[in-house]
Amino acid sequence: MITMKKIKITVPTSKKIQLKNITDEITRAVQESLIEDGICVVFCPHTTAGLVINENADPDVVSDMERALPRSVPDVRFDHLEGNSPAHFLTCITRPSVQIIVEGGHLALGRWQGVFFCEFDGPRHRTVWVKVIEG
Q: How far apart are CA 89 and CA 42, in angstroms?
């Protein structure tokens, strides 16, 4: 039998474009699951937000990304009436989910890696789902 545990994380954002380190919240979800070995799936159910794994040691990386990502939006006319098409585009550059190996009850991230929630249409209160699957 496969053991699974799903946990909801709320992520409040305070800026239009913001990367928030959610590694600690995901780590707590893995610990609460009591699953020692398996996979952790982190899923963002929003069309104007995404997830990335990147460096979490130097805060300049986050501020660099917050400045660089909006500049990657092409200079085109968007037809979407809500006015947040750049946010939808940026979500395509990131991804809706990341998967991380769980070993010994811990996330098997690299030494400098962290998981970041990427807000592109804030500020808002967002939801992220974490599912830990034994295996």
A: 20
pLDDT tens track for 85-112 = 889 889 999 999 999 999 999 999 999 9
Q: Is 130 helix (H, G, I), strand (E, B) or coil?
A: strand
d(CA 19, CA 52): 9
In the prediction, which pLDDT does 84 show?
84
Report the alpha-carbon distance of residue 35 to residue 13 in Å, rounded: 30
Segment holding 107, helix H or strand E: strand 106-107
From residue 75, how far is each of 15, 87, 112 by CA, in Å? 22, 14, 34
Determine contact, residues 73/127, Cβ cutoff 8 Å: no
pLDDT < 50 stretches in the chain: none
CA 34/CA 32 separation, integer angstroms = 5
pLDDT for position 77: 80
Q: Is 29 helix (H, G, I), strand (E, B) or coil?
A: helix
H or E segment and range at residue 38: strand 38-43
Q: Please state, in angstroms and rounded to a whole number, the distance separating the CA atoms of residues 4 and 67.
A: 38
Question: What pLDDT, on the 0 to 100 scale, is given for residue 1?
Answer: 56
